[in-house]
């Protein structure tokens, strides 16, 4: 089992959030897709309450799009894109999907609230409501994004126990 983190995208309800994912690499990898799930709670139509992710890249054909040429870094990038652009037509959470389709403002408010409650680091020494006005906020966000991009770029080489 491996643990990776992805950063919520800029100008999304997940901005400022750091989301932890559990990755299990099957014995037949790369001929089978990795099993991934969010450990950090997230309000999203394609991610359920247990963190399971509905994404074609995590499924074998004919219903899925997994190919041995894909790698974990590519799948993490596609999950980050799914966070920015949910697919309400293939939901795991029908109620959130309806909200996304028919009341996007409410969806965005709830997703931001969940991000603040579950994914924003509270130990940065700044109150959450004021951090965008602090000079170090943008720099620390860039550092975190660069670090996360580095983690995403490398294939998991170590097993991490929880």
TrEMBL record:
EC class, as a word, reads: transferase
What CDD domains does its record include? Answer: UBCc_UBE2T
| The keyword DNA-binding appears for this protein | no
Q: Where is the composition biased (Basic and acidic residues)?
A: 142-162
Determine if Phosphoprotein is one of this entry's keywords.
no
**Disordered: annotated segments:** 122-162
Instruction: Give the GO molecular function terms.
Output: ATP binding; ubiquitin conjugating enzyme activity
* InterPro entries assigned: UBC (IPR000608), UBQ-conjugating_enzyme/RWD (IPR016135)
Q: Which residues form the UBC core domain?
A: 1-120
Cite the entry's keywords alphabetically: ATP-binding, Nucleotide-binding, Transferase, Ubl conjugation pathway
Q: Which domain of life is it from?
A: Eukaryota
Enzyme Commission numbers on file:
2.3.2.23
Give the protein's recorded name.
Ubiquitin-conjugating enzyme E2 T
**Organism field:** Dissostichus eleginoides (Patagonian toothfish)
């Amino acid at each position: 089992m491996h643990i990776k983190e992805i950063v919520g995208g800029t100008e999304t309800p997940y901005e400022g959030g750091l989301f932890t994912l559990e990755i299990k690499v099957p014995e037949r990898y790369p001929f089978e897709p990795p099993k991934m799930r969010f450990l950090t709670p997230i309000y999203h139509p394609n991610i359920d309450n247990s963190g399971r992710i509905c994404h074609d890249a995590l499924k074998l054909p004919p219903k899925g799009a997994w190919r041995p040429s894909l790698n974990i870094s590519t799948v993490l990038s596609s999950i980050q894109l799914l966070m920015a652009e949910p697919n309400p037509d293939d939901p795991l959470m029908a109620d959130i999907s309806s909200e996304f389709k028919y009341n996007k403002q409410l969806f965005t408010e709830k997703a931001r609230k969940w991000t603040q409650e579950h994914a924003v680091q509270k130990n940065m020494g700044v109150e959450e409501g004021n951090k965008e006005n602090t000079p170090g906020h943008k720099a620390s966000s860039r550092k975190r994004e660069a670090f996360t991009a580095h983690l995403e770029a490398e294939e998991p080489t170590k097993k991490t126990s929880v």
